[in-house]
Specification:
The complex is a heterodimer of chains A (362) and B (294). Chain A has nine helices and 21 strands. Chain A is an alpha+beta fold and 362 residues long. Chain A folds into two domains: 2-232, P-loop containing nucleotide triphosphate hydrolases (Rossmann fold, 3-Layer(aba) Sandwich); 233-355, OB fold (Dihydrolipoamide Acetyltransferase, E2P) (Beta Barrel), CATH 2.40.50.140. In chain A, the strands form five sheets. In chain A, strands 6-7-8-3-9-10 form a six-stranded mixed sheet, with helices on both faces. A five-stranded antiparallel sheet of chain A has the order 13-12-11-14-21. Chain A has a four-stranded antiparallel sheet with strand order 2-1-4-5, covered by helices on one side. In chain A, a hairpin with a 5-residue loop joins strand 11 and strand 12 (253-256). In chain A, helix 2 crosses helix 3 and helix 2 runs parallel beside helix 4. The two termini of chain A are 32 Å apart. In chain B, 31% of the residues are buried. By secondary structure, chain B is an all-alpha fold. Chain B is built from 13 helices and no strands. Chain B folds into two domains: 16-63, no CATH class; 84-291, MetI-like (MetI-like fold), CATH 1.10.3720. Classes of the chains: A alpha+beta (362), B mainly alpha (294). The A-B interface holds A 47, 50-52, 71-73, 77-79, 81-89, 98-99, 102-103, 130-132, 139, 143, 146 and B 182, 184-185, 187-194, 198, 202-203, 206-207, 291-294. Bound molecules: adenosine-5'-triphosphate (ATP) and magnesium ion. The site of magnesium ion has 3 residues of chain A, from helix 1.
């Protein structure tokens, strides 16, 4: 069943078109992450869903109701903001119950719901405090609690963790995931942190300039990016892109300078290689094997180590392949020296090919 | 050998810049305090002593007679009931004017910063522009308007005028303050189902005491010190203290009682002075307690 349907949504600020005929279907109980670079319109989309911005065109349906003209409070949503946005003059309890009081929920039920939410979020000892007396993590918990007490079908999060330090972020990330597993309601979560997106999402929508580039599971986005932008956006360190020329025939190949990569195992979208087309070959640094493993791959080559970046669990190595910068990741326990010659290899099955002009996946 | 620097940096108490700063400050303080000194001293002397002309000298024979006379029995035109009548009138003008103008302006500022409507920027610009037009240009039209409304020469008339003239600056003040509050707070309140007034009264007003204090200071001093609007719009019965002070000081009959005049002037200036002394503290406390972050 669909929880949220967005149909041909457009939004303009004066002359500036931020969202353009955007369509998005979100399944009931799904955790959807909106991921994209700064300024691509994620918050704007979320505000449209919440009813905080009037859309210029299109429709928004929540739970089968057309809510396009409804007030935020009547849409059955709860929202959590990046800056927490707690009411500074109210206690935590006041913050949690404010919305319920406004909608005329009986006192006894307010108390019950506040108690339940504060138990789930473990903020019971803080109920009498003012927001200024809380730490960042506690504030964000209260902000989540404020959405929780509303007992709504849809939760909207606008970068709820980006004001927190790395450790707290990781903690709260897990907590949000637990919360979702427990409540099983629909969540839309905006972030520009790809780790957050990959770890939390059932599906990720990658946005660019107000358009959804790809809507897929984290696995699908990571392994089968639909275009070069998505491929470069997901993954850290980013994918290696090498320009080359395809040739069809019996064994499809891509020629990158004087290097030929055998593509016979590559799953072409339209079934076959296009002879003579210019294309990008994209290889993720973590899909490159080193040493003995490399020899077994469909493509292998000897390279010279130029820069070594140890990162603990693994080591990032910079080299040159086909006169181009090329990065790959190797086991952090192995010693590598600058100047050392290594044999590296990868399997085209895990690589990506993009058309040179359209940058779409081939 | 130079001393190895460690711990607090030693302070030089009498370096030349400091001496310069303090002497300039001292001169400025004397410059502003001297007239006050003369006023207070004169107001505490009897007329014979005033006539001797030693304006800087403290009174030989201390008397509070001039103060009592200024308050209670000095002649302000036809009546000789002192300044107390004017004080009462000023209070009657002041309190409603301050409350009404701040109430309207704060809602204006709130609407202009959070509920932008088509043309709200233009509206705001016009409002601000209005504050640059000299009052004198608008006096005659306003006299006609208040006359048509039937409130010319009454308390309501002068309150109406003060409310109008307070509007641009107060709206600007509130708009800028509210615009500095995080917009997400406003969004959160909307999701929580608070309406126009709910957001204003339950969320914004409780977090804005400092700006209300600033507005009150501005309005109280401005309205209390007003002479022009009082003399034109209030009507003879309701002349504020400033107008009556003028009548006392500029009385043409009899001898000039400088001591009474001085006492009357200090009495009239006492309210704004008091506001500054009291609210200065309140103001700082208000900002500290405001704790806008959250
Ligand atoms: N009130 C507004 N008036 C005009 N333009 C706006 C307004 N709000 C946002 N924009 C523009 O809309 C675009 C999208 O903004 P939005 O806040 O949705 O970005 P975002 O994807 O949330 O970015 P971030 O990751 O930085 O939060 C930006 O180019 C921004 O400048
Ligand atoms: Mg944003």
């Amino acid at each position: 069943m669909k929880s949220i349907e967005i149909k041909d949504l457009s939004l303009k600020f004066g002359d500036l078109t931020v969202l353009e005929s955007l369509n998005l279907d979100i399944i009931d109980g799904e955790f959807l992450v909106l991921l994209g670079a700064s300024g691509c319109g994620k918050s704007t989309l979320l505000n449209c869903i919440a009813g905080l911005l009037d859309v210029s065109d299109g429709q928004i349906h929540i739970k089968g109701n057309n809510v396009t003209w409804k007030e935020p409070k009547d849409r059955g949503i709860g929202m959590v903001f990046q800056s927490y946005a707690l009411y500074p003059q109210m206690s935590v309890e006041g913050n949690l119950s404010f919305g319920l009081k406004n909608s005329g929920v009986p006192k006894a039920e307010i108390a019950e719901r506040v108690a339940r939410a504060s138990e789930i979020l473990q903020i019971e000892p803080l109920l009498k405090r003012k927001p200024a007396q809380l730490s960042g993590g506690q504030r964000q918990r209260v902000a989540i609690g404020r959405a929780l007490v509303r007992e709504v079908d849809v939760f909207l999060f606008d970068e709820p963790l980006s004001n927190l330090d790395a450790k707290l972020r990781a903690e709260l990330r897990v907590e949000i995931k637990r919360l979702h597993q427990k409540l099983e309601n629909t969540m839309i979560y905006v972030t520009h942190d790809q780790i957050e997106a990959l770890t939390l999402a059932d599906r990720i929508a990658i946005m660019r300039d107000g358009k959804v580039q790809q809507l897929d599971t984290p696995h699908g986005i990571y392994n089968n990016p639909v275009n070069k932008y998505v491929a470069g956006f997901i993954g850290s360190p980013g994918m290696n892109f090498m320009p080359g020329k395809l040739n069809g025939g019996g064994t499809p190949q891509i020629a990158i300078k004087d290097l030929n990569v055998d593509l016979s195992r590559y799953p072409f979208a339209n079934g076959a290689s296009v002879d003579g087309a210019d294309a990008w070959l994209g290889v993720r640094p973590e899909h490159v094997s080193v040493g003995r493993d490399a020899a077994e791959k469909a493509f292998s080559h000897e390279v010279e180590v130029e820069v070594v970046e140890p990162m603990g669990s693994d080591t990032l190595v910079w080299t040159t392949l086909a006169e181009q910068e090329f990065r790959f990741r190797m086991d952090g326990q192995k010693d590598v020296e600058v100047g050392e010659k290594l044999n590296i290899g990868f399997d085209p099955i895990s690589a990506s090919l993009f058309d040179m002009q359209s940058e779409d996946r081939l | 050998m130079a001393i190895e620097p460690t711990g607090p940096r030693p302070r030089r108490n009498f370096d030349p810049t400091r001496i310069m700063i303090y002497s300039v400050l001292a001169v400025a303080a004397v410059y502003y305090l001297l007239p006050l000194w003369v006023m207070v001293m004169t107001s505490l002397k009897g007329m014979p002593e005033v006539r001797l002309g030693n304006i800087f000298a403290p009174p030989v024979e201390l008397t509070f007679e001039p103060w009592a006379k200024a308050w209670d029995s000095a002649c302000t035109g036809l009546y000789c009931e002192g300044l107390k009548v004017g004080f009462g009138n000023s209070v009657k003008i002041l309190i409603p004017s301050v409350i009404i103008s701040i109430a309207i302006a704060s809602v204006n500022g709130y609407a202009l910063s959070f509920w932008r409507f088509k043309g709200s920027e233009v509206f705001f610009t016009i409002l601000i522009f209005g504050s640059f037009i000299p009052y004198q240009v608008m006096l005659y039209p306003l006299v006609i308007i208040t006359r048509e409304l039937g409130i010319f020469g009454s308390l309501a008339g002068v309150i109406f005028i003060h409310t109008i003239f307070g509007m641009p600056i107060l709206t600007l003040l509130f708009r800028n303050y509210f615009a500095s509050l995080p917009e997400e707070l406003f969004k959160a309140a909307r999701v929580d189902g608070a309406g126009f007034w709910g957001i204003f009264l339950k969320i914004l007003v409780p977090m804005s005491p400092p700006i209300f204090v600033v507005a009150i200071i501005l309005q109280v001093t401005g309205i209390w010190n007003d002479f022009l609007f009082g003399v034109i719009f209030a009507g003879t019965k309701n002349f504020p203290m400033t107008v009556q002070l003028n009548n006392i000081v500029n009385a043409t009959q009899g001898v000039k009682e400088y001591n009474v005049n001085m006492a009357a002037t200090i009495l009239t200036g006492a309210v704004p002075l008091l506001i500054y002394f009291v609210s200065g503290k309140l103001f700082v406390r208000g900002i500290a307690a405001g704790a806008v972050k959250g």
